[in-house]
Amino acid sequence: MNVVGIDGCRRGWFFAQLLDSARFRLGVVEHLQALRNTITASDLTLIDIPIGLKSFGEEERKCDRDARRLLGPRASSVFPVPCRQVLECMSYQEGSAVNHSVTGRRLSRQSWGIVAKIAEADRLIRELPEPGKLREMHPEVCFCTLNNGRPMAHNKKKPPGQSERFALLKRHLPHIQTIVGEARHSWRKKDLADDDILDALVGAVSASYAERLVSLPTMTEKDELGLIMEIVFIYCKIWPND
């Protein structure tokens, strides 16, 4: 097994690599390009960032629409994804105006906040020799489906939310305490938040069940560059250790 989960953090990007039932590797990099070799060598890497962008039309990506429907009370965690043209914009005001002209929707501050990271992922996946090794996930969708289709009850940034996500991951990753402990020892919270660690880990855990992965939407949707617009997650009726 060589699977990776990646999540954005204040310092750049946090990754969790699972190598077998006991071995793991963690890291924080400033730029996603620094993980190119890690992604290429992995069996699968799941990343919490939009891959594949609309270039025209008012309809949003189907995977985002379906994810909100699945998440119910956690639907607000799925930010509206900007159109491709926004990646060239230099300010929030410009980006919002461009997005409105293309899609009919203004851009939220939250969406603008991840535009630079979306651009990084967009550049990298188009350079990869096997782009299928890097796929998009959304942590809340992964947690929901690991929880038998029930969205998490609490906000991920609050202690109760972190506790319920930690407990759920422990069912699939018994040594999670060691992993989280190493991450907390290695990086300050101002650079790497607790929820960033858990989000990357749920991506790595989901990637480890590659044969059970499905995606939203069920019918493949691609952007103008041929990039698949999807959100990947595990589907299984009976979970380990139930």
Give a brief rundown of this model.
With 242 residues, the chain is α/β, with parallel strands linked by helices. The chain has helices at 36-41, 62-71, 92-103, 109-113, 115-127, 139-146, 159-170, 176-186, 194-207; strands at residues 3-9, 12-18, 24-29, 44-47, 134-136, 213-216, 231-234.
What can you see in these coordinates?
- The chain has 242 residues and is of the alpha/beta class.
- It is 38% helix and 14% strand.
- It has helices at 36-41, 62-71, 92-103, 109-113, 115-127, 139-146, 159-170, 176-186, 194-207; strands at 3-9, 12-18, 24-29, 44-47, 134-136, 213-216, 231-234.
- A five-stranded mixed β-sheet has the order 3-2-1-4-5. The chain has a two-stranded antiparallel ribbon with strand order 6-7.
- α7 runs parallel beside α9.
- The protein is globular and about 50 Å long.
- The chain starts with a strand and ends in an 8-residue tail after the last strand.
Helix content: 25-40%
Quote the beta fraction: 5-15%
Neighbour order of strands in the largest sheet:
3-2-1-4-5
Structural class: alpha/beta
Major beta-sheet overview: 5 strands, mixed
* Helix count, DSSP H or I runs of 4 or more residues: 9
Please, what is the average pLDDT? 95
Low-pLDDT ranges: 238-242
What general form does the structure show?
globular
C-alpha-based Rg, rounded: 17 Å
Order of helices and strands: EEEHEHHHHEHHHHEE
| β-strand number | 7
N-to-C terminal Cα separation, in Å?
Answer: 23 Å
